[in-house]
Amino acid sequence: MKTKVKINKEKLFLYFILLPYLKPYNITLIPELDYIFKVWKVLATAILLTKFFYSKKKIHKPTFWLFGFLIIWMLSLIINKGPINDYINNIMSIAGVTMLFEYYFGNDNFKNNIIQSLYSISVWFILLNLYTVVIHHPFFAGGMKLYDNANFLGGDNYSAFILITLCGFMYFYDIKKYSIIRIKTWIVSFASIASLTITFSFMGILTHLILYFAVLAKNIKIRRILFRWQNAVTLGIIIVVSVAYFHLDQIIASLLFSMDKVGFNGRNYIWPMALQAIEKKPLLGYGGITQELASTWFLAGANHTHNILLEYPFSTGIIGTIFFVIYFISVLSKMKSMFADDSLRILMYTLTAYMICSILDFYIGLINFYLLLNMIYLFKNENMINRIIKQKTRGE
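Request: output the structure for the sequence above.
Response:
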C-alpha cells in the first residue's frame, strides 16, 4: 500500500509569500541569492495583487491609512532624491504582507496556518542567528568587514527588533494552541536572548526581559497597567525631550560606559539635529538619508534618527506621520476590552516591548513591525466576533 503524503497547499503558499518578505540580513551578503530573493519578492507581490484584484474584496480602513503612508513616504523619497533603491524593497514588503492579510481576512484556515508558519520561521531564524553569533560571522561571510556585530539577522540592535517579534509570535502560537508556553518554546526564546547577550545589545536584552516578565506575571491588573504601548510612547517622549534639551544623556552615558558601551552612541547629537531638520521640512520630511548626506554630518553621521517618535516625521513629515498614526490607532482601537484573551495579550506585550526598544533605535522599514500590527488587527477582529457570538448565544 502506498501512503499518500498530504501537502497543505495554503501553508506552502504562505511560506512562498512570507520568506522573501522576511529575508534575513545574511541573504544580502550573497549577491546571487540576494538577487533570487528580490525577484522572488516581486513575483510574490504580483501574485498577491492579482489574487486580491480578482477577489473583488475591499480593503479595511487601517490598510487604507497604511497605504496612504507608504505613498507619501515614496513621494518624499522621490521629491528629495532620497535612497529609493534602499527603501523600495521595504515598502514592497510592507504592502505585500498587508495585502496577504487583507486577502485572507476572515479565513479561519489562514489564521491557523499563519501562526504555524510564523512559529516555524521564528524557531529557525532564532537558532540560525545564535549559531552565527557563536561563530562570529554570518554564513559565507568569513573575513568580510561587517558593522554592529552583524549576524544572520543583522546587527545587534537591528536583530533585537526582529528577535522580539519572533519570540512574540512563538508565545502567541503556544498560548493559542496549547494554552501554555511549552518548554521547547522557552528554550528557543532563551537562544534569542543569548545571541543578544553575547553581542551585548543593551536595549535588546532589556526588552526581552520585559517581555518575559509580562508573559510570566500572574497579576493581570499589574500587566495591564505596566505593559501598555501608551506607556512606551510616554517614556519615549520624556527621554527624547530630556536628552535633546536637558542633557539626560550625560547620566546615561556614564551608565553605558560602565558596561563597556560607547557613551550614548551619539543620540545626544542625533536627536537635537533631527528636531532641527524636521522644522526645515515639516510637511513631507526627507524620505531617507543618502550616504552622501550622512557623510556631511547632517545627523551626526547617522543615516536615521534612532527613535520611533522622530523617524516618522523626519522621513515622511507631518502628513505621513498623520497617516501612520491614524493607521496605528485604528489597528489598536477597542483593544482594552480584548485583554481577556490571553493570546492577544501576548501580541500586545510584544508590541510594548518593541516600542520600548524603539526609544533608542528604530528602523522605519523593518517588516516585522508591520507584520506584528497585522497580526494584532487580524486576531483582534476574531476576538470581537467571538465575543458577539457568545453574547447572542447567552441572549437566546
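The longest helix spans residues 367-395.
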